[in-house]
Amino acid sequence: MTTPLIGRARDRGVETLSLDSPANRNALSHALVRDLTEALAQCGKDDDVRAVVLTHSGNTFSAGADLKDPPPPEAVPALLRRILELRKPVVARVTGHVRAGGLGLLGACDIAFASGTATFAFTEVRIGVAPAVISLPLLPRVAPRALSRYCLTGETFGAAEAARIGLVTHCAGDTDPDEALAPVLDGLRRAAPGALARTKELLTAKVLEAFVEDAGEMTRLSASLFAGPEAREGMTAFLERRDPPWVV
User: Fold this and answer.
1) For residues 71, 197, 17 and 146, what is the CA-based torsion angle, rounded to 10 degrees?
2) What value does the mean pLDDT take over residues 144-157?
3) Measuring CA to CA, how many Å separate 244 from each of 62, 167, 240, 248?
4) Does 205 score more than 70 pLDDT?
5) Which of 15, 33, 143, 232 has its CA 20 to 30 A from that of 52?
6) Which sign, positive or negative, has the C-alpha torsion 201, 203, 206, 210?
7) Beta-sheet pairing, 51-56 with 14-19
8) 3-class DSSP string for 109-164
9) Where does the record place a coiled coil (predicted)?
């Protein structure tokens, strides 16, 4: 029997899904992407679920793509689209580090809360690839000049900066993240389910347009880059904990 990679709990109509693969820093492996996609589908069919909180175990929300056990090329865009199309709000609760593909999950969520200790980085360029698929939910939501800086440099930045540029909704700072999140969940519980679903449709329409128009192209670009020589060298260097040869 395989170990579940998604923890689940429910409280007054709010289903909490927890990425629970801390051994590989909740990297987006084939199994984790599959299990999270299925858990979201189940939430969508359950009338007792009014909203979903997406969180994590360990000190990392997600380290991005699992380089040892990557999902099929179409699986990550399908997961992001699942979050966007779910007829219930999805709220990210981040108390750790988020890297690369993990940032795509935040972009797909309707609301994102981060503790003051959370850190973020678009590390794709440092291993020889580009944030192709995750750009689909992020480009419509994040400040363009800031996104250019952080995607091109791979710099690490904190939760306050993430809130300033629109990557997350709110930086909780030193406040307990559950305390900061409580009024949001209370508001969602007070909302009429049908009205909540239609409101989410209005808010995600432009983001979903990008998926309809560009998901295929971005998936092909991502697959091409991951199969290229820079990515092979970058991933090898990452796994060997050394700088790739292009670092000057």
Assistant:
1) 60
2) 98
3) 23, 29, 10, 10
4) yes
5) 143
6) negative
7) parallel
8) CCEEEECCCCEEECCHHHHCCCCCCCHHHHCCCCCHHHHHHHHHHCCEEEHHHHHH
9) none
The domains found in the chain, sorted by start residue, are 1-177+193-248 (3.90.226.10)
CB 110 within 8 A of CB 91: yes
pLDDT in tens, 59-95: 999 999 998 899 999 999 999 999 999 999 999 999 9
- The structure tokens listed for 28 are 């987006």
The DSSP bridge pattern shows strands 119-121 and 14-19 to be unpaired
Burial of 73 (0-12, 13-18, 19+ CB in 10 A): middle
- Reference 59, options 122, 117, 9; nearest CA is 117
pLDDT of residue 72: 93
Distance of CA 237 to the CA centre of its chain: 25
| CB-based burial, 36-51: b 16+ in 10 Å, e otherwise | bbebbeebeeeeebbb
Q: What does the block give as tokens for 117?
A: 């200790």
- What average pLDDT score do residues 165-178 get? 94
